[in-house]
Structures are given as structure tokens and as C-alpha cells.
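Assemble and predict.
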Amino acid sequence: MAQIRHALTARRADDFAAWYQEVISAAEMAEESGVRGCMVIRPWGYGIWERMQRLLDDRIKATGHSNAYFPIFIPLSNFEREAEHVEGFAKEMAVVTHHRLIAGKDGGLIPDPEAKLEEPLVVRPTSETIIGDAMARWVQSWRDLPLKLNQWANVVRWEMRTRMFLRTSEFLWQEGHTAHADETEAKEHTLTMLEVYRAFADEDLALAVIPGEKPENERFPGAVETWSIEAMMQDGKALQAGTSHYLGTNFAKASGIKFQNREGSESLAHTTSWGVSTRMVGGVIMTHGDDDGLRLPPKIAPQQVVILPMLRERPEDQDLIDYCETLRTTLAAQQVMGEPLRVLLDTRPGKAAQKRWDYVRKGAPIIVEVGGRDMENGVVSMLRRDRLWDEETGKPAFQTPTREVAGQTIPDVLADMQNALLTQAQEHRDANITRGVTEFADVEKHFTASRYPGWMEVQWSKPTGEALEKIVERLKEHKLTIRNVPLDAIPVDGTCIFTGEPAVERVLLAKAY
Amino acid sequence: MAQIRHALTARRADDFAAWYQEVISAAEMAEESGVRGCMVIRPWGYGIWERMQRLLDDRIKATGHSNAYFPIFIPLSNFEREAEHVEGFAKEMAVVTHHRLIAGKDGGLIPDPEAKLEEPLVVRPTSETIIGDAMARWVQSWRDLPLKLNQWANVVRWEMRTRMFLRTSEFLWQEGHTAHADETEAKEHTLTMLEVYRAFADEDLALAVIPGEKPENERFPGAVETWSIEAMMQDGKALQAGTSHYLGTNFAKASGIKFQNREGSESLAHTTSWGVSTRMVGGVIMTHGDDDGLRLPPKIAPQQVVILPMLRERPEDQDLIDYCETLRTTLAAQQVMGEPLRVLLDTRPGKAAQKRWDYVRKGAPIIVEVGGRDMENGVVSMLRRDRLWDEETGKPAFQTPTREVAGQTIPDVLADMQNALLTQAQEHRDANITRGVTEFADVEKHFTASRYPGWMEVQWSKPTGEALEKIVERLKEHKLTIRNVPLDAIPVDGTCIFTGEPAVERVLLAKAY
């Protein structure tokens, strides 16, 4: 096999972290902003997020939720009402203390001491406490329930160590908040939204996630149950890609969400919350990227097909552009997986070959190049991002269908690519979950012996409190965490790998982002 | 004519401000949040904003812009670089000074003195200075220009007197930012975006705005030119509904947006910025609302048709629901003004008549009620929100087409209503602009004599500096402001109403929100 000259400098196998940063930069997805912990999301990266928003928003609305918008500022007193919640977030909150600037002694601006807020405001890290206030106003009777809200917003959690998309002080997300008449319905809804996330992650993002319940120590501050979807990255680490929380009556108590029930007496509502963030973009990179850059599942690609005429700044260029425009029109009129196909004809100045590599790095699913000879022959040169190289020759694996055939078959190629990426992610995940280990010593061995140990599924007795804390500490020595208790794990059979007591469920162990 | 019992308590003619608040509350659009100056946008209000976003976003993308996202926090030092800009915003900025909370002496939370930021951060009131930093990194050569960006975001300007949608400390908006190689192109683009706003306001929101240039004293802090679209509310006051700024090289200088031009030497970019916000929602209320609540142009109605079966909690209800479902399916399959028709079949518990008034107050364009007798006769009872009352009888003006005819004609009715609302707004505007006044004393007389004086178009000599300031002060005595210099005003003919010098252009005077 010939040597392939990949489009990136870093290699996944050599330095996954450096590779990740290079993809983000080479695909022009995001960059450091110069403001501590905050990133700039560039048009290509934001275009991916917009696609995710559109697809997830449709799913959220289809399950009966309405979008609304709540204040970015939360008074400290709101936070203080739920003890665990404030405990969980107090260490990482941006606090607004003044509402005006004036010139200081050296001429620079300073917060005006005369404009100090009586009660400092926190920039929302999450909105349970402020949405709870609104729910308390809106919910009077059982007829007002369930109340199903969602918000697309920015939130801030002051992070000391940041990594683009995965952990930034400001990030974008949606946070759903619902109130229900009873525990059964609220718990059911928590799982409904977990399933919405699973379907979104698998069907739209091709992530192959595992849904399950988080252990006690990993619960959202103030939650009774926390569920997650966990995705396996190509380095075998786990990424928590979305969470759904059953909050019991904790936040209803704190905010006073009470209603007159069918029997005429007063009840507390049971609430849920659930969120997915720009972190997902990081998950897509680390699941699908390769040594040539990003590869995008067609459903979330800002452009699914990019057409590059090989222009030479000559009068004949116009013929070439017209030839390409016909293909563009044909494609733009077609549907792919239920939506209009997104196609870009790029006629900006610059060499087609250079642009080709730009779009390879950006992960555009199909790149179509058209030169003068292609036009003469009535064909196009087509590159499929997930089959980029001819391994025999070490050259890009161009196909040359006629323009008409390209126009007809590209929608199917895109649908095929969507499936292929999911299959790859599933296969990678399934090949890298170790099962059947029964001794903790073997867990330690497994995770220290290999550079890419993947995940391990073990049985445990579901210890709580201090017993759990001890296990968590022990795992921490190997940088391991308990990811979740998979929803569809096979039944247990044997003893707990930590305590030796009879096992009650299976848990996933992994290093994680 | 019979007495009509309107659905609101307040009347526009009696107390426009109270009426405005009542519409917002009765239509469940928004409410005070309890956080100073911040409102909660409820699902119906947010649904209107989502419609506006979708329509405007399409227009912004169609003119070659990409969305991106920039940090919410701006370091003070960024602001200090452009003197006029900081001068304009320093008085109303939310300042973040700490990044952690701890328990204070009395047990309550306080900002942790150990976690004080070295440089305070401002919550963005607008993003020229932070986007300028990114532009400086991205623009190297003339080939990188024009750079056309847009951001959908929340911004904060600390307001002492707030009014829902019109003036809130936090609001939602889009802010476009572009960089160009020269003044001509940048100025042209400023006007292109003004026209995008005009078309959006007129064609989508039915506002009948007047585009024009703001006088010097009303310019955006740091701008060379500021243009606006001005809408006339039903009380004759003006609402600035969107602005487009040519920023010259002011922000390019401040942020260092330089490029190698075609000649190989270094040039400063010329930048523009332009924004439209949730304020537009207030403009829609005050333009189209009536004494029964909101009226929504169909293009921005979250639901264009609401079907209300008159359920009686009996087994026969299911037949009625099926009958309505057939109409819903027919309508949902149709296109209205280029988009799928939005129809809601509301089967929640509750009386249809009460729900009817809820949707009247919310401004749903068409309400369809269906009772047992309607079903027997194969008809539906249809109410058109812009022709609500039969003035003869004082009762709701129901029409009773067959279900099939309703299914076929409703798309046309919606398109007709969109036009009718625009025509009404245009007629109201045109009937309430006074022209031909040549003496300032008559201006004063006009604006003090009438409760609804509308706007006045006068000629002026375009004074600047102190001369302009004096005029502005004089107008202020009557709470008047110069709105803009209309783009398409007829040529001047005579002298300046303020200075007696030869007039050079026409300006609009009005009280404003």
C-alpha cells in the first residue's frame, strides 16, 4: 500500500489531544477568544451547532414542549433556597456586583462604587431556580400540568481548565424544565427525554451512545436521579453527552411550585430538567474525525455537498460555472433524510485543489470538483469524505460519474454515509467494552496496561454513601469514573467487583472528558 | 350599532400604556421576572420571536452572512479602546467582578474576596469590540474581505426605567458585523442591511416603517453614520425598530483590523454593524393590537389557525375530534406564503368559548370552532381575528363555510390578512404625518394641541455640533426627537424650520419610545 499524505500534522494515535485542537483550528470551527475560558465559535462550528439545534428543537417540540426565555441573572437568594444545588455551583459562578463603570484615578475604567448592587446577581450556570419561580406563578391547578418548557441559552460555569467545546466557562445549550402532578409521570418524562437525547445522538449525530443512570455521586446537584447518555471517543474515553434529571419535589419545595390536585388539596409538583450543550460538537469531532480532519454526519453538516469548479481566471470559467450550477440546482431541489439537500457552489478566488483540502479538513461529506476536461466528458470528480483515500495508490479516491448520475445518486450516498458513520461508531464502541472481569485487581491491570483501554462493564452491589465514596476514591487513583448503569444491560450474575456482595446491576467504568 | 363587549379591560384610546401592559399579560407573552429589569418571555411571546428569528435569519443568510458566536464577557480594556463607544455605554453596564461565592458571616452567600477578577468583565451591551478582535485575526488580505458575520445573542444594558419588550436590562437580538475593503462598499452594505430590515419589517411584520438616516446626535456611539427604520405606533409615537451603522475605520483602528490591499500595502478595514431586537415584538403589539388583545400578522403567528372542538366530556367527543383532525391534516399539508401552514388542534380540557377568547387575546389569525351541529351540517364556525365583530349585532362575526371550503380557502385568507394588516399600518402612518409646517411655533402648537399628534415632516438645514444641540434641547421641551431623514422624501423647497437657512433635507419629528 502506498504512503498517504494526511491533511493534518497531528495523528490521533500519537497525540489525541493535539489532534483534537488541530481539527478545531484546521476546520475553522472555533478559537480562543482572549477572554478567560470563553471561545469564539466560528461560522463552520456554529453552522454545525445550528444544525444540531434545529434537529433537537424539532424533537423537543414533537414531545410537547414550548420554548421560552428566562433571565440570565439569578439573585443569590434564589440559589440559597436549595442547599445541594448551591453547594454544587457556588465555586464556579460569575458574579455581577456593579451596574456602571466610571473613570478610575489612572484614567482607566473601574466599577463605580456608587453603583454597587444591593444583592449581587449570578450569571446563570443553569436555570432551575429562576424557572422554578415562574412555574410557581403559572401552576395553580392540576389542569396546568404537565408544564413542559425548554430554553436555548448561554450559561456560565467558571472553569479553571478549559478545552474548546468540551469545557468552557461560557457555553451554549438547551435546558428543558418540566413540572408534573406526580412522581410516576415525572420519572417517566425523565426517561422520555433521555430517549429523545439517545435518538438525537444516534440518528442525527451518529454517536452510538449508551443511556443509563448515573451513580449517586455523579448526580446533578439537587437531583433525585440523574440519567445520561455516554459516548465513546476514539481514544476510548467517555464523553457525557447529555443528562436528564428527575428532581423530585426538591426544587418545587424551594420555589413553591404547588397546585390544587384532583382531590382538591394542595400538592407539590415533581420536576425534571435535562440539557445538551455545545459539548456535543466536541463529541462529534472525537467520534468521527480522522487524520485528515473532521468528518461530519450529513445530517449536521452545514453544507452536505461542496462543488468546486477549477477556475483559471479565463473567460471559459463562466461555462464551467454554468455546468456546475446545473448540478447545484439539481441537488438543491432534492430531499435528503427528510430535509432539502444543502449544497454550496464555491466560486471564490483560489485554487480548487487547495479548497478541496480546506473542505476535507472541515468534514464536508461530499466534495465535487469540476475541471475543463470533466465538463467536456460530461462527468464530475467526486470525493466521499468517509472514503477519502485509494489505499493502493495513496491518492484521493475520486469517482467520476456523469453529472446526471451524480445529481441522482448523491442523496443516497449521503444517507449511506450517515449510516456508515453510525455503524463505525457502534463497532468501535462495542469492540472496546471489556466484560467478564470479576476482580478489581484485573480492572487496575486492564486500565494501566493499555494506552487505549476503552470501557469496562462490571457488576456491583450499588453501594451508597461512604461505601460508594471509597470506591470512587479508589477508581480515581486510576483516573477512572463510573459512567452509568446501562439501561439495557444483561441481567447480573455473580458478585460485586468492589464489595464481594451479591451484584444488583452493571456499571460502566471509563476514563472520561 | 350594537354595543361590543371587548376582551380587554383597558382601551387604547383611554390609556395606551395600560392597554399595552394588559395585552402582554392577557396574551401570555411575557411577565416581570422578579430580577431587576429582566423579563420572562413566555411561550406565546417567545414563539413570536422564534418566527421573527427564522424569517430574519433567512434574509440575513440570503445576503451572504454566516452566523457565529462570540463571548458574552468583554474585558474592560477592550472597551477603553474606542472613546465614544465606552462613553456611550459605561453608564449602563453589568460588571462581573468575582468568580466564586462563599458563605458570609450571617450564613448567606457573598462573592468570595479571594476570587476577585484581576480585570473586571462587562456583560456585552453590544459586541463591536470583541468581534473586532476576531476580525483582526481573520482579516489578513483583501481576499478575506468582505467578512460578513451575524450573531444571535442576549445583551445587557442596565436600564433604570424598564418596559416589557421595549426597554429591558437584558434583551435578545441579532447583531450583524461586517468588514469591507473600502468606504464605498461598507456604506453600500450599511444600506443593504437597512433595506433587509425594511423588507422584514414591512413584509413579515406588517409594520410600514420609514427608513432613513439618524441625525448626528442620535448616532450609535462610535459610528460615522447611523440609519434606522422607524415605525409609527397606534398612539402616534415612533418606535426605532432597527438600526444599521457605518462605523468608518473607528473600530478597525481600535481593534487593529488591517489587511494587505490589492496594491500590496496595508489598509484599515471599514466596518458596519446592525441590529434588531425583541423590541420588535413591542412594535408588533402597538401597531396591530386592538381592544380585544393582540392581532398577529400570519407570517409571525406561532399558530396561524387554531381549531377548537366544543368538547363535552362525552363519548361523542371522539367523533368531533376526528372531524377536526381531518381539517387539521388538510391545512397542515398546505403552504402559506412559502411555508407550511401552522395549525393547532386544541383538545385540552376546558370550554371552547373560553379558549376562543384566550386565542383572540393572543392574536391567533384564524379561530375555527366546531360543535356537534357544525359537524352534522358539514361546516365549521370560523372567526377571522382582523374582522372579529359583526358591528350590527355586536357579536363575533363567525362565518360558516363547509369544512372542505375552509380547508381550501384558509391559506388565501391568511395571505389576505397579512396584506390587510400592512395596509392598515400604512394608512395609519400616512394619515398621521403632518407636512407643510414652516414655522417652529406651529410645530409647538401642533404637538401640544392634540393627544395624538402623530409625526411631522419638516425641512432643515442639517445643523451640526452646538447648533444641533440647541435644536435638540428645544425639541426636548416638547418631548420631541428627530427620528430620521427619510430615504425617499420629496426634494426640499424652502428654508430650515429651525434656523431659517436654506433647507437641505427633510426630517421626521415625533415623540418616541
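The domain at 303-416 of chain A is CATH 3.40.50.800 (Rossmann fold).
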